[in-house]
Amino acid sequence: xxxxxxxxxxxxxxxxSQRRVVAQVLDGDHVHLTADEVHIRATRLLPEISRATVxxxxxxxxxxxxxxxxxxxxRAKRYDPNAHHPHHHLVCSACGTIRDVHPTGxxxxxxxxxxxxxxxxxxxxxxxxxxxxDCA
Amino acid sequence: xxxxxxxxxxxxxxxxSQRRVVAQVLDGDHVHLTADEVHIRATRLLPEISRATVxxxxxxxxxxxxxxxxxxxxRAKRYDPNAHHPHHHLVCSACGTIRDVHPTGxxxxxxxxxxxxxxxxxxxxxxxxxxxxDCA
DNA sequence: TTGCTTGCAAAGCATTTGCAAGAGC
DNA sequence: GCTCTTGCAAATGCTTTGCAAGCAA
Lengths: 136, 136
Description:
Two copies of one chain form a homodimer. By secondary structure, the first copy, chain A, is of the alpha+beta class. Helix content of chain A is about 30%, strand content about 20%. In chain A, strands 1-3-2 form a three-stranded antiparallel β-sheet. A three-stranded mixed β-sheet of chain A has the order 5-4-6, with no helix packed on it. The longest helix of chain A is centred in the middle third of the chain and has 13 residues. Chain A is globular, with a radius of gyration of 17 Å. Chains A and B meet through β6 of A and β6 of B. Chain B binds a DNA duplex through α2 and α4.
């Protein structure tokens, strides 16, 4: 069983075949699917699954902290299940491909208290943009 | 005259009253407006300006590198005219407020060549998320 | 049984587009 | 005058919602 599914079961998440399928589709590394892509793949495993359910489920996984929402400059958000291994993203400006990367250093540490303006900072997203080898 | 307008004129950008108004609305620091907010403010200066023109103009300013597109997790993109002074963003997860910040160190330098996977990296966006003093 | 989840269809919102009329240079 | 820009209105694409029926616990 997928790691994601196992964690969700442990957390007492009410399981349905639709939710199982969405979790299966998302499992793995370097996965950055749009909601629509998740729906297409989920449909291959469970033909009756609806788009609305995919959106519901993705929203919940994000709320649970099991999936990260990635905003690129494209219209559709992407969903990244690799929430338990801190990482950042390398995005191709041309084709939209995303790769996970692991820069050195703690990005949070780079923001000194006097630059926080009283904010309680809990998260950092670091996105590198450029051209991938195929598009360069 | 605003700095932004001056730069655009120097670059030979064909000037119209609509474009002038959009540039005026965007000028300044800590400005992170949505296209709709730009339209509302532009309307106060030039009542006939259309939404489509605001979108056209914003898209061009981004293409010219004079304005930066900021993707948060909200639906609408935000536009930041502070393109000539490298900076990053501090976003409140609750109310959406954005502040410009200036972390120490060069974020680009943190990504070693062996983590670039052949990409030609040209840009870095660093976003800190948390709660602002008012929402905490 | 009880309440949470699903599917459908329609609505909502941000953004884009085609095209004729208008304005800069 | 020639070309680029504007405005309108319709279309598009992603996402959300309301509600009745279905299913997990």
